[in-house]
Every structure is written in structure tokens, then in C-alpha cells.
Model the fold of this input.
Amino acid sequence: MNSTRPFLALVGAFLLMPTGTAAAAPAAPPVDHARVVSEKPAPWTPHVLDGTVKDILLIGDTVVVAGKFNQVAEADGGRARDIRNLFAFEHGTGRLLRGFEPRVDGTVTSLAEGPEGTVIAGGEFQTVNGRPSRGLTRLSLRDGRAVPEFRAALDGGHATRIAGDGDNLYVGGTFSGVNGGGQAALARLDARTGKVDPGFAPRVSEPRRGALKVQDMALSPDGRRLVVNGTFTKVNGKDRYQIAMLDTAGGTPTAWSTRAYEPECDYSRIHTYMRQMAFAPDGSYFAVVTAGGPEVKPGLCKSVSRFENTDAPGMEPTWSNKTGGDSLYAVEVTSQAVYVGGHQRWMDNPEGALNPGPGSVAREGIAAVDPRTGKALEWNPGRTRGHGVEALHATSDGLYVGSDTDRLAGEYHARLGMFPLS
Done:
């Protein structure tokens, strides 16, 4: 899931904003595709030789890859290089960028484009390039050095997902605060300096199980809405069970709400079954994927669902597509497809119970769903399932996939691949 969402044109949005609210920062137009991507991966992507890929982000011609790993090699079979948790390569050639070699001592879970040729990384790390940098860092794409003016640090816990619009950085996770402040689990920072924005202060609270945690977030293309999910059951005292939509102008919950994620879908080791979310390029809807426990239960566990971007309460999904018992972790949306990844064996399988039910279709580890009907498209490259895909990122010319296995569409592509449009 792409952890950042570029904006549409903002003039109309600005005119609709009440006096005194800040307009969203302008950015590049959103990525979209006129057709579904190819089933044959590009031959040039590097190989991540161990661990797992957690996020992928294209900035200009540079692809940044985050996760938990120790070795990377170029596609031509060159020697393995000791690179831990974060690296970059040239889009279109796969050439590793040797100038970008930051030393990050823990898992990098999420990426966002920063200002002025930088990338912001969030995760479970404590130091970057030998200096304290708990959970957040902003790095130069040119040489991998930390930008001195960015001084954000999490107070305990870690960052699970970050999203940005160029000026603002939204951070979700398990932290008790940022920079010594008390904004727990969700905060907005200045993307340049890392200073906390006190004007955005939603209070997520009352975890359904375990610790308070924001699991994932998605920023609408116009920057006016932020959807968050996690263990919480209330936001600013209002009932919002595991998912909420926030007005970014002030951080207050909008009228949008759903009870779709109230049913139990997990077991004691999983504190939330919510996973990634992504907006459509036009911002009219967003898609949500979920995991779950070892049993098949009612509700929206182990599914992908579409929800409309409205201000209506009591929303039901426009459609849902269930795997019949296997978790989904990642989602990316274009106008032609809702791409999902996990360790699923089937889609279109609402009656399946760890078996292919009536009408199900085999889709090993990766699939594409029709945005209008919610039914699986014919696209079916397949991949070795493993734990599953945790990173999907659409670019203008294709779709990047990151996981923990090394077979994609029947070919060797270790933990990283790219399906081109052509």
C-alpha cells in the first residue's frame, strides 16, 4: 500500500473550505492506469535476498524500498550487498544507487515523500547512521544522510504507517507521544522540521484489545480526508470501531462511520484485523483489506471492501470480496483495478471455509478486483504465498510488489517485482 497519496487539483476544494481552515498542500497529480497491468514482471528489479519488504515508493526516477532485510543484489546476478532495511534503485534499470546507503538499525515499515529531494521513513528503529532517531527520519535521496533540521522522535512505541502531502506528515503507530508531547498513536508533523502540529489533535482511545494502535492510514487525493484504522473504538469520544474518517483541517472525525468491523474476526494474539487502505485516484472511494485468526468467522475478516467517500453515518461496504479463510495485507487502487496481496488462495469465496467454495476462483497470493462489481478480474500472475504481500505501489507505468517470497508469475523475483503496463 502505498503509504502516500498525491493530490488532485485543489482550486475547487479550496473554495469549499470554511474560512479559517488551511488548504491542502499542492502536489503531483495522482497516478492512474488506463488498463490492468501485465501478468509478466519486468526483468530488471533487484532481488531482496532475505527477510521481507514492507513498503515501496517511487520519487522521480528513484525507487525506495523499506522492510526488514540484510542483503540485496541486482537482477543481473551480481554479488550480494549487505544492505539493511532500506535501499534505493533506479526505476527502469534496477541499478542500485550506491550513494543512498543509510544505516537503519531496525525495521522500516513505511515511506513518504519528503520536501526538497528527501524521503521520510517510519518504523521500529532506534538509530540512523549511528545517531538516535527513534521511529522517524528524513533522508536525502542523494547521499542517504539524515536532514539535520528534521528532529522528530517518537516517545516509546513505533510507527506503523506514515503519509504525507509534501508539507504535512501524518504518523500512526503505538507511540505515547512525539517530541515529548502527549499526542498518542496519531499525530501530524511539519514534514520539514518534524515539529508537531497542535492544530491536528484527534483523540483515538479505548482499544478493543491490547495496546492503543493506529495500524494504517490513507490520505485522500485532495488532502481533505484521512482514513485511519487500528485497535481504537472511539475518536474524540465518538464510536468509531477500528476505523474512522478525519477532517484534516482540524483532525475531527467526520460523520462517516461504519459498524462493519465490529464482529470479532481474530484471536488473542491479533489486536486488530484491520490492514491496509487506499483511495481511488479520483478520491470517490477507498478500499480496505483485512486479516484474521485461524478460523473463518462472519463479518469482513479476510476480505477487501469498497467504501464510498461521503459524510454519511452507518455506511455499509459497496461490495466485499472474501478469500474464504486467508488474510489480505496490502491494497492499491487504480481506475481499472483494486489490487490486493496477502497469502490468499482464492477470491470470490464468501462461502469458503479454508476451501474453495461455490463460485470461487484461484488467485495465489495476489489478485485484481473490478472496482465496480467487486468481482475478481482475470488477471492472475500468481506468486509463492509465504506470509504474504505487504507492499503494493502503482506508478505511471506499472505496479510494484513487495513480499517475503521469491517466485512471482512463475519467475525468480526475490521479494520484489514490478508488473509493467505494456
Q: What stands out?
A: The helical segments are 11-16.
